[in-house]
Amino acid sequence: MVSSSQTIKLSMEFADAASWHCALVLLVLVLIGSIGANSVSSEEHARGRQIFNRPCDEIYVVGEGETLHTISDKCGDPFIVERNPHIHDPDDVFPGLVIKIIPSTDEKL
Fold it and tell me: Is 65 left (phi over 0), alpha (psi -120 to 50) or beta?
């Protein structure tokens, strides 16, 4: 017959083993979660500038159909004309034009 002290001892050993297994499973899940959170998908890699909240490089090449207004909204720089003295007419922006962009510090998120 099993005494009550032996039953308590067996129960404690079982509880100790179960807690170690739970801790190990929890550790593995945390490690897997952190690896998944640190990996960058190919889509995020292609949009790397957006990860750092930088939609535009400092040197920007105007694309087809863009205006200074759309570039200003996209890049967060309301002073494009002031920073680019080579732009004489803000309405005469053409694809391939190189401009300097400096996003404002109070940029919308």
Answer: left
The reply to whether 35 and 73 lie within a common domain is no
Confidence of residue 100 (pLDDT cuts 50, 70, 90): very high
Q: Quick one: pLDDT at residue 61?
A: 93
- 84 Cβ contact list (under 8 Å, min separation 6): 99, 100
Instruction: Pull the structure tokens for residue 52.
Output: 């750092």
Q: Which structural domain range is residue 82 located in?
A: 52-100
DSSP conformation letters of 14-62: HHHHHHHHHHHHHHHHHHHHHHHHH---HHHHHTHHHHTT--S-SEEE-
Question: Over 60: is that where the pLDDT of 49 sits?
Answer: no
